[in-house]
Every structure is written in C-alpha cells, then in structure tokens.
Amino acid sequence: MFAPIESSSRLLVCLTFPADPYVDNFEIAETEQHALAQAQHIAKSTGAGMDLLYVRERMYESLADRVAEFEGDHLRRTREAMKAIQQKCIAAGTDTEIHFANGMAWFEIIKHATALNSGMIVVSARRDKSTRKDGIVLGSTARKIVRKSHVPVWVDKGTRTEPVVHVMAAIDLSDASGRVLEAADWAASTYVAKKSILHCPDYSGEIIFTRMPDAMARKDEYRSEVTMSAVNSIRELTDDDSSWNLVVDPRRPAKAIPEVTEEEDVDLVVLNSVSRTGIAGFIIGNTAEKILHAIPASMLVLKPEGWSSPVS
Fold first, then answer.
1. Which of 166-180, 236-250, 274-288 shows the lowest per-residue confidence on average (mean pLDDT)?
2. Is the pTM of this model over 0.90?
3. How far apart are CA 291 and CA 297, in angstroms?
C-alpha cells in the first residue's frame, strides 16, 4: 500500500515570516500555523520526523549596503522564531530540524526535499481578501512546487480549524487511480476520517448519437452503461470496500471537484497531477490552475510513479 509518510519518513514544512523585522508579532501567518499543525498531526500519528525550512529571497541586491542592518535584524528574528517553533515540536514528541536557505523559494524547497529525502512537502495557501469569498488562494510559490515537485505535496488551505474529518479521492480510472486511493486511505486512517471517491465519467462518445433517431434515449442508455462500467471498475479497485462513499458526478471535473468538495464538506482532496480524461494536465494550464484555486479544501497532490523533477 502506498503511504506518503511512514515512521522512517520526514516531512518538509515550508515557513515564511513578516517582511518587517521590527513588528511586534514576528510569527508565521495564520494559514502556515494551520499547515504546521497538520504536519505535526501527521508526524505524531506516523512517527515521522519534520524538517522546517525558511528560504530567504534576496530582494535588495542593488541596495545591499543600505539594508544590511535591516536584513541582519530580519535573519536574527527569523532564527529565533524558527528555534522557538522547533522546541515546541520537539516538546510535543516530534524529531524536528530547522534549515535555512537563500534563493528562489520554490526551487530551494524542492532541492531540499531531494537532499533531505523528504516523503512529503507541506505548504500553505495564502490569504487574499480581494479574491474568493474565503480569501484563500495558491500563491506562485505553491503553484510551482505542485508543478515541479517529485514528492507528494500537501497544500493546506486552512479552511477548517479542526483536524481533517473527510478525505476525498478524485480519480479518473487511469493507472494512477490505485495510488490515489491508497494515499486517500492512508490520510483517512491517519486522521480517523470519513473517506469518499469522486469520479466524473467520460461521456464524450455520446456525440455519435446526436443525429440518430431517438438520440436522447440512446444517449441516456449510453450514459447509464458508462456509469455502471465506472462503478464496477471502482468497486474492483477498492475490493468492494463499503467504507468508501462513492460519488459519480456527470459534470465536468472542473465544475464537479470544487462543488462536490463544498457539498460534501470535504477537508482534503487527494488527486494525481497527471490524468487521462477531464483532469488531464491537471497542474498545467489555466483551466487546471483555476480548479486548484476553486477547491475549497486542502489538497494532497501526487506525481506518477517514476516522475522526475526538473530541479536537480
């Protein structure tokens, strides 16, 4: 069974701090606090260790002399804050190390995931009140990590304060579907959560009935056959495990995934980054990224087995 994190694994948790080192509350954002709490829960449940990473992106190269003191104070407060978080995690029983890097955040995060042999990367979405009703969106760093990481990425949207209570696997019945189901089953076991499967059948073949007599009846029959075939395939994949709640939705994945997530009160959506049908190219392309933004829950995004990151 595929499990992203086991007792011998480590989670890489990405943290950021306020740009101003002189603010009173120099701490990670609310969304990152939620992501860190989820990572701690996973580590405690599995016996895994954690690596906390802060990447310092230099933005003042042309003003280096003027801002040297500013940057020095920022680094000092960051180290103090990171050590405080580390001590809290250790006190809670989790083996925790801290790391610092300079450069582009997404690049350094993936590079450290390789160097530290991380089993999973945990990142948070950011809060933006100018966008969606809950103001949680994927920043550019999170999007690039999801695209280019070779290990599973947990994107925490921090939309729930309680632990995960409902996990949903979004599958397309490609070869990767079994791995997605195993990861969702692992997450549900880790949180003792309800688990569901969402599948959007591919009805594209119905176009051949458009000009035939009784077109609507033929299309209905065709859709019923495709749906039943999908249900049987899913039952076979799950060994007819009745603990799964199955949702077969006729809508396109771009619409169904976010809306079913909302309707079913899902906390975590598990999906593969490359799929065969409507979710194909899920991470690449404008439509795909709109889906990522639209999902009102955290996500565990997997890569196909054998996939290599362009980051070395």
1. 274-288
2. no
3. 11
